[in-house]
Amino acid sequence: MCGAVSNRVRVLVWHRIAQDGPDRIPEIYRGISEDLARTPGLLANELLYSRSRPGTVAVMSEWRDMDAFLAWEQGPDHRGTTAGLRPYRDLDRDPQYELYEVAESFVSG
Q: Left (φ > 0), alpha (ψ -120 to 50) or beta: where does 55 sit?
């Protein structure tokens, strides 16, 4: 089913798995997700492990619209809530995060 154009926004933030210990990213991600569960405008988020770039992880969040994302990003809770993943940010990747507006979507079924 083809959908109409939406205002939804997806944000991808790139991280690297630490080479000097166990992969703690899933545990940290789950804690952050619990903290964000009732954030206005946040529709979903996912933890994605790259199949083409081993050791690379992306956190993808989907927002109702750009205003909802910017309200959260510029709000007082943003930096504190996501601080646990910050040490894993992929500093070699430029940019370290990307914003995408959903132009169209298709849902199979």
A: left
Whether residue 9 contacts residue 99, with contact meaning beta carbons closer than 8 Å, is answered with yes
- CATH code at 9-101: 3.30.70.100
Q: What is the pTM of this model?
A: 0.87
pLDDT digits (tens, 9 = 90+) for 28-54: 999 999 999 999 999 999 999 999 999
Q: Report the C-alpha dihedral over residues 105, 48, 39, 79, rounded to 10 degrees.
A: -130
Amino acid at 16: R
Using an 8 Å Cβ cutoff, are 104 and 13 in contact? Answer: no
Strand (E) or helix (H) holding 60: strand 56-63
